[in-house]
Structure formats: structure tokens, C-alpha cells
Amino acid sequence: MNDTVTHENEYDNSMVRMLELIWGTGYMAPGGPGNVANLLEGTEPRGKRILDVGCGIGGPAFEMARSFDASVVGIDIEAPLIERATAAAKKLGLQRRCTFETVDPGPLPFPDRSFDIVVSSGAITQTSDKTTLLGECYRVLVPGGFLSCYEWMKSERDYSDDMRYWLKLEGLSYALETLDELGERFHAAGFVDVISRDASAWYRTEAKREYELIKGALYDELVELLGKNDADHFVENWRAMVVVCDSGEMRQGYCRGRRFNNDRVV
Question: Residue 117 in contact with residue 231, Cβ under 8 Å?
Fold first, then answer.
């Protein structure tokens, strides 16, 4: 989510197809079903009503519906992604349990206390006004409900040339913070029982594996899907990402917090 009134779509068809090839059908963040399980760990998700902020093309929502019998509402600011998610839900027969909406940046279009759980994979990463987004997540949660996210973050040091180069290759609107800063924002928004977990070591290994795949076994398929120029761009993108993951500048982590049981709406 961004804090500007207008939004220019950043995930074109080439980007989405490439991400699915690497991360699995329906996924625009790493980890697949395993990442969904990590997000929902400790939240007692079975049969719950879940909001997926920055849902992309729906893969996590479908996993939550199938594995946890959850009812999921997915939201994103990019209409083409929502169109794809909606079509996929119908094809999978999940349209009654997984619905998707395009939203404008700003307040969430839901009443107070609408959801048992709010999840996000990367939406906070790409949000400059994190205070507003976290406050809105708090507002739409029932007392005792959880916000759980997986985000890409940065180290405490200033960006190196390698980091600036990778960000340029990505071409996305990142607003990176440290894991500690994100945890502090959870507390400031009113969440209690806040737990943060650094997942950088896991993704450092994954990024190397992904890089070897896209420059090797998957390269011809990438060229067929995207054309040689785009394929070569993504290979270089992943090489540069491996560099900043290895250096510790690009980090990943989970953060979870609970809305206090007996508080007022804020």
C-alpha cells in the first residue's frame, strides 16, 4: 500500500509470470505454502475470517482457504492482480471462500472489528505510510485478533552501491526499515505480544538456489515466457539480490502482534 492518491501499476505480466515460475503458481513472495504456515503460526486460523493485505494474484488466500478452512478477503491496489486472483478463485472453485477487491491507498474499506486475522507478505515493505496502514489493520481486527506479516527489510547501515543497484533493477516502490523498527511500529499502533523473527538466513540460501535455477534450468523457459531481454534482466536482478542478501543489507523477517482483548477502537 502506498500513501499517494494515485497509483501506477508496478507488476506487469512479465514480472508476475517470472515470480510464479520461481515461487509457484499464485505466489508473488517466496516460500509458497510454507510461508503461509509461518504467517499463521500461533494465530489459531482454522475457520477464521482473514484479510490478506497486498494479496497479489491470490496464492496465499487459496492456501489459507484450503488448509485452514478460512474465509479470506484479499485486497490490492493493482487492479490487474485482483482480476487474475478473482479468475483463479473461480477456476479453483474457491470463489465463495476467497474474494478479492481493488482498494485505493488509505483507509481500509471495512468496518471496525471485521476480521480475526490480518496477514501481509510484502505490503508493508512497499508502504511509506506504515503508521496509517498498521493503525488500519488494528482497527479492522476483532479484540484478540492477530496481524502477521512477512516483510523484506534493510540493515541499520546506509545503502551501499550494491544495494542501490539492486533497488534500481527491482524498480519497485520499496520503503525498507529494520526488523526492530517494524516491531516498534507494531507497539506504537497498539499491538501487544509482539514477536519478531529474522528469516534472513533462510532466504539467503533460497535466493542463491533461485538464482542458480533462473540462470540454468529455468533460463530457456524464462526466455520463452518473457523474451531474452527481460529474462536477462531478471537473471541480473537475482544476481544483484544474492549480493545484498549475502552482505546482510537486504533482510527478511516475520512480525506478529495481537490486538488487546478489552480495548477500545482507536
Answer: no
pTM for this model (two decimals): 0.92
Calpha distance 100→84 (Å, rounded): 10
Per the rule left: phi > 0, alpha: psi between -120 and 50, beta: everything else, 147 is beta
Residue 9, CA atoms < 13 Å, CB-side half-sphere: 15
| 5 within a domain of the structure (yes/no) | no
The count of structural domains within the chain is 1
Instruction: Specify the residue for cell string 552501491.
Output: 161
Q: Identify whether 239 is part of a domain.
A: yes
In 3-state terms, what secondary structure has residue 48? coil
One digit per residue, the tens of pLDDT, for the chain of length 266 reads: 434 344 567 677 777 888 898 999 999 999 999 999 999 999 999 999 999 999 999 999 999 999 999 999 999 999 999 999 999 999 999 999 999 999 998 899 999 999 999 999 989 998 989 999 999 999 999 999 999 999 999 999 999 999 999 999 998 889 999 999 999 999 999 999 999 999 999 999 999 999 999 999 999 999 998 899 999 999 999 999 999 999 999 999 999 999 987 654 44
Domain ranges, residue 181 = 13-258
**What 3-state DSSP class applies to 217?**
coil
Residue 152 lies in a domain: yes
In a domain, 6, yes or no: no
Which CATH number does the domain housing residue 174 bear? 3.40.50.150
Q: Is the alpha carbon torsion for 242, 133, 177, 260 positive or negative?
A: negative
Contact 249, 158 (CB under 8 A): no
Q: What does the DSSP assignment read for 153-215?
A: EE-SSPPPHHHHHHHHHH-S------HHHHHHHHHHHT-EEEEEEE-HHHHHHHHHHHHHHHH
